[in-house]
Design a protein that fits this description.
Arc Repressor Mutant, subunit A, alpha/beta
Length: about 200
């Protein structure tokens, strides 16, 4: 049985501790680092070069999908296994585009998680069946720029804040958000961000 090295990324302290303890009990799995945000996850993978990054999606700094995108860009050999509470087709499609090797739900038994981890390490792709069904839902209509702006809105940024942050004219920000509102059938920018997040598009 080959040894599997793992970095854990999860922003809920109790869940992170539980994962680390349960995986540490497996004779073939070694947890190299446990971190609580996406930026630290990326740094830990670069430093430790684990076989697998086991990551949540929604974390401070960078999301698990952002980390997967960056690892794909860096051509990292580390395989990514997403463990999340969100059974959303939009998230799954983005995960697959980012080269994620596995996508399972947190409420699955630990035996399923360790089995998924071993299969991902062996080069397989593992997707929870209920998530595969969800992926056949509505396609994401947003552009990358619209998605970027709606993420800022979800964080509470004003149009002026977004314009400064992204070095855009405030009128350009309004135009992008107006288009996003129309696509999502939202009444305002806050509702648009909420709809996009609920559908797994942010």
């Amino acid at each position: 049985m080959s040894e599997i090295s793992v970095v854990l990324a999860e922003d809920q302290g109790m869940v992170l501790s539980a994962f680390a303890e349960l995986l540490g009990m497996q004779p073939d799995i070694t947890v190299l680092a446990s971190v609580a945000d996406g930026t630290a996850a990326l740094a830990a993978v670069v430093e430790h070069r684990p076989d697998v990054l086991l990551s949540d999606i929604e974390m401070p700094g960078m999301s698990g999908l952002d980390v997967a995108d960056e690892l794909l860009r860096l051509e990292s050999p580390t395989r990514v296994l997403i463990v999340t509470t969100f059974a959303r087709g939009g998230y799954l499609r983005r995960a697959l585009e980012a080269g994620v090797a596995g996508y399972v739900l947190k409420d699955a038994p630990i035996e399923e998680l360790t089995r998924a981890l071993r299969r991902v390490h062996a080069g397989e792709r593992v997707i929870a069946p209920e998530l595969a069904v969800a992926a056949w839902g509505a396609r994401d209509p947003l552009t990358d720029r619209e998605r970027e702006l709606l993420r800022e809105v979800a964080e509470g940024a004003s149009n002026a804040d977004i314009a400064r942050e992204l070095r855009l004219a405030e009128g350009t920000v309004r135009n992008y958000l107006s288009t996003a509102l129309a696509k999502l059938g939202a009444r305002n920018r806050t509702e648009a961000a909420r709809i996009a997040r609920e559908r797994g598009w942010l």
